Fold:
Amino acid sequence: MKARLWRPLALGAACFAGLTAMGPGNGPAAPADMKIFAGLEKGQWELRPRGMDRGAAIRKLCLGDPAQLFQMRGGDAGCERFVVTDTPERASITYQCRGNGAGRTDLRMETPRLVQISAQGVVDGAPFSETLEARRTGPCR
Structure:
């Protein structure tokens, strides 16, 4: 039931921003084709919590598809995404996952090896909010 309540909110936000749904994994541009990812380096990345989350564990990610940075919670099954902002330095995306929540992620690329991430939403009925620094550390292991 909670998932049904989030869908109108996500769609309303997308309509307010002038966007329309184009199916699962797509908004005005497919996330992997967004401008911010053109210069982003693939490889092993560390995601370090910032601010109040500093005590949380450091996550490692082998970045093949840069769109992995947009949705780190709630899985990817049956999710619809809406691109809100798409520039070479900044990107924002909202997503709605059937039966598993919704969220918004904002990325700011400082260099091709350093990205600031801010994400918030609801997964399995529980809210989350996190701020991360993603840094490339080398090739995937």
